[in-house]
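haha ok so turns out i had the wrong file open the whole time. this is the CORRECT one, sorry everyone. sequence first:
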Amino acid sequence: SSSACGVGAGAPFVTSLHLLLSTRAAVPTGLGMEVMAPATINALNGTSVKLSCTFNSCYKVENKQFSLNWTYQECKNCSEELFLQFRMKIMNKQLDRFGNRVEFTGNPTKYDVSFILNNVQLEDEGTYNCYVLNPPDRQRGRASISLKVLTEEPPKRDSTVAVIVGASVGGFLAVVILVLMVVKCVRRKKQQRLNTDDQKTEEEGKTDGEGNPDEGTK
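then structure:
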C-alpha cells in the first residue's frame, strides 16, 4: 500500500532523487497518473541498458486492474510499435527489431515498470514510451525516453562538485514534489467521489419516490 497518497511505498527514494538530478520527468496534467522516466539515455553499442520508468499513484496496485504498455518509435512521426505489456502478468511482444533482448526488471507493486535492453544495437535508437494505468485512476500516464546509442564511451569528467550541489537541490525538490503529490491525490480522490455522487444523483432522478421507473405522462 502507499505510505502517503501519491507516493509508492516501495519506490526507492534514491531512484527518485537520481531522476530529479539527472533527468526531466514527464508528468501529465489533470487526473492522469504521474509517470517518471529519464528524458534521454545514452547506451554504448553492444552493451545492456536499463530504461527506467516509475510512477506514483494514490491507490494500491492490483494486478487484475493494472496495465502497462511499452512502445517504440523509430522517429517522431513514426507509428508506435508495442513490444511489452503487463496484463495480469508480463507479456513480451517479440518484435523482429528486439528479438528476445527485452528483459522486464520492474515490479508494478513497487511502482517500477523498468526493463533492460540487452546487446544494444545502433538501430535501437529512438523513442521509448511508457504507458501506465492503475484504476481507480481514470486516465493513464505516459513518459517518454529518447535512447541514444554511442559507438564509443564519452570522456569521463570530475563531477564531485556537481553531485554535491545537485544532491542539495534535489533533496529540496523531492520534499516539494512529495507535498504537491499528496495535495493533488487528495484533490483527485475528492473529485472522483464528487463525480460518482453526481452520477448516482442522476440515476436516482430517473426513478419516482418509490424507486420505480417514472413512466411519465401517457
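The radius of gyration is 22 Å.
again sry for the mixup
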